Every structure is written in C-alpha cells, then in structure tokens.
Amino acid sequence: MKSTMEYFREISVIPRASGHEEKIADFICSTAEKNGLFYRRDSHNNVFVRKPASKDKQNMPSVLLAAHTDMVCEKTSESGHDFSSDPLTLVEKNGFVSAKATTLGADNGGGVAVMLRLMEDGEASHPQTEFLFTSSEETGMQGAENFDYSLVSSDYIINLDSEKSATACIGCAGGSRYKLRIPVERTRKAEKLYKINISGLAGGHSGVDITKNRKNALKILGTMLFEIHKNYPMQLAQLCGGGKDNVIPVSAYATFELLKNTDIRSVKELSTSLFRSIQATLEDCDLKHFRVTLKSCNPENEEVRLLSFKSTYAVISALTLVPYGITEIIPGSDMPSASINPGVGNISDEDFEMVFLSRFGADFSDRCTENLISSTATLLGGTLNKESSYPGWPYRRGSALQSAFEKACLEVYGKTAVFESVHAGLECGIFSSRLTALGKSPDIISIGPDLYSIHTVNEKMNIDSLEKLYSAVCRTIECIN
Prior knowledge:
This protein has helices at 4-11, 22-34, 106-120, 142-146, 217-231, 264-279, 284-287, 309-321, 363-379, 400-412, 428-437, 463-479; strands at residues 38-41, 47-51, 63-68, 90-93, 96-99, 129-134, 156-159, 167-172, 174-183, 186-189, 193-199, 234-241, 252-258, 291-297, 305-307, 325-329, 336-347, 351-360, 383-390, 418-422, 443-446, 451-452, 460-462. The protein is an alpha+beta fold. It has two domains: 4-173 and 393-479, 3-Layer(aba) Sandwich (Aminopeptidase), CATH 3.40.630; 189-390, Alpha-Beta Plaits, CATH 3.30.70.360. Strands 9, 11, 12, 13, 14, 16, 17, 18 and 19 form a nine-stranded antiparallel β-sheet that branches. Helix 1 crosses helix 3 (106-120) and helix 10 packs across helix 12. It is elongated and about 85 Å long. The two termini are 28 Å apart.
C-alpha cells in the first residue's frame, strides 16, 4: 500500500490552478474507476465518489470526506514556473516538504492525498465512505456552491482543509469578494518615467495571517505615492500590485512622470525617509527582505499615456482610503471577527481596479465593510460590485464527531484534541447550509496536517503529520457512535 506522501507526490505533478482542475479531476475519476467505485463528475469539475462499507461496518453511519483540488499559485519573481503545465518541483528536507520557488499546494493537496489513499485502501475497516473533491475553493468556493448535495447520504463530514494536527476547526468566517472600479482619463504620451517598486514583504493568507501585523504592499505603495504627490505633483502611468484577493500582497509598483524641473534628488530623499519610517513598523518576517526602489525607467509601451492629474489623485486616494487589516474584534478576546484585504490593484487603459476580500462573523459586519468601500468608490467617481459571497460556519462545541476525534487524537497523537474557530473561509459553511436545507443534520469538523506559510512561496508541510492525519481520519471514523 502506498503511503499518503506518495499520493501527494503523484498529484503534485498535475497542474491544478483554480478554475483549471480538469486534469486532477481526470486523475480522481480514473482512480475511482480503477477501484470499481461509484463516481460522478459535474460541469464544475467537482468529483463525488462513494465507497461501500467493509463487511464489518455495514451498520455504521456513512461518513463524507471533503477536500478542494485547486491550489493558490504563487511564485518568486525569478521563477519561470508555468502553473498551467509545469509539475511542482518538490523539495523534501529534514522531515518537511516544500516546492522550489512556488507554493506547495499542500492546501489542500494534503487532504486530497488522504482521500485518494482511503479510496484505494482495500484493508481499511470503514463504513460507507463518500468523498467530495471540490473545485475553485481558493477563488470563491464556486465548486462547493454548485455541487448537487442530493448525492450526499452522510450526516458526518470530515473536511480535510485545516493546518494543525490534533486540532479540529469547528467554526469559520464568511467571506465576500468586492471589485472597485474607478474610470481614468489618459492625456499625453509619457516622456520621462520613474518607477517606484515595493518588494520583499512576507505576505500570507489574508485571514490566518492578517492578525500578525503583516504589511500590504498596495497600502505601502499608496502611502508613498500620496506623500510624494503631496510634495512633488506627478501623473501616474501604470500601477500593479498583488495577484489574489485571499493573499496579502508582497509586491507592487507604479510608474509616474514628475513636473518638469522637479529635483529628483529631493524625491529620492523623501522616498528614503518614508522607507525608514515604514521599516520601523514592520515585524521581523516583513523586515527581512523589504525593499523600496525608485529609479528612472523607459516606458514599457511607447504609446503609454499619462493619467490626468484628476485621475492620478483618484487612484492615489483610493489606495490611501481603502482599509486593510482587522476591522472588528470578538468581544472579550483578541480574535478578529471582521477584516478586509485589498489583494489586487491595477490600472488599465480605461480604469483603476481593486479587488478585496472581506471576512466576517456577522452579515452586519460585511455590510459595514461594503458601505465603507462603496462610499469611497462613489466619492472618487467609481463603482463597487460584490463578485461573490460564501456563508460563515457558527462555532458549536459538543457533538458525536467531535467526541470521536477526541478519542482518535489521544491514540494517534498522544494529545488532547484542540477545538477552534478560524478567521478564514472553509467550505464547511456551505456544506452545513446546503445540507440543512435538504433536511439533514450535518455534524462537521475540519482537520489537517501541519502546514506553514500557506499561500506563499515559503509554504511547507510536515511529512509525518500527513501520515498521522491518515491514521487520525481512519480512527475517527471507527470511533463514531
């Protein structure tokens, strides 16, 4: 029987960017077919598999395992990796696995590997077990939203999308994605451009890591542009930062033209002063590689035209005014109940666009965030659209599945189980709401291996914890009463 890590190595060869899960869905379907298992694949590349109970577990309740097949695709600026075709280059060292110059995809490849192994394990003692492999979780949970839950017969659900061994998540935040657009006016062709570049920030998961005072490259760029423009008027030409709304941006840049006869040495002195002021506010993880450069550059396109002064001011104002970070705290704790991450910013020929992810415990908090950004957009002549939304998952302690996990933890990890809620989105909120609407009473936990620095190029996974996760899943299933 192959180890769980061997399954992880196999799927790491398969490209699986969000929205492009065709090949990993092919692999799962072929695995189900090879093992004679019932399966259904839908138009969203969700794959549902059902494995009959072993002879000794015919009368036990059915259990559903769930994991998403897509991964966050981030790479270093030097990497030539193509996530649409290239396999990940795994690096296994000192008991950990990472990927060379890219994200690892252990979120949620670790869970997928566990499920594939259990699908093929002919010796495991288990009740009827269902497997739900969802798509596009990282970009809005579209797979989970569009799955046909009438296929599910299980009331017990073990989601495998968490990051700490011997720990079960039993509650999570909801989330909404917003897109802000501000029309821009272009004037004359650029003549002499300067480029300011922010780089080297740690970034990270926009929910889990937003509590760690990690800085956002788009917000830093906005601050620096505002201060420079206030003292030395400019016209922007280009601006680009971030890549995904659920990742804290690690880099951003803008090109601009100064008024003629502006002393560039004074501008650079101001930039250096701002850099040092920002340095003083950084945590060690950001401080280590943080860089700001300001230098002259040739227009990337000879036809590039400058934004008008009015549009330049609107773009810089938007970057300055939009919030980032924790916006509400759970009363009596230091845990966030609401936050917002401006994850993407870009100037096109016709508009300036920003994409945000709002996380919230209560719908009212999300409305407050939406009103704040919408007001900013309106004041600056723009619009705000809600692109997608997913429900939260209320924290509730005490259930049969939680008790089963507690027993499994003592046996597999030699530890007492920890139960927590996370300020991040999990598909469990969708599972719960959709199955409840069908008259079921889902009992759900989310567990996983030990993962570190997810959604970044520093992502790594403890290999032993992945193997123990498989044992913990099998033992939890056995302990359900």
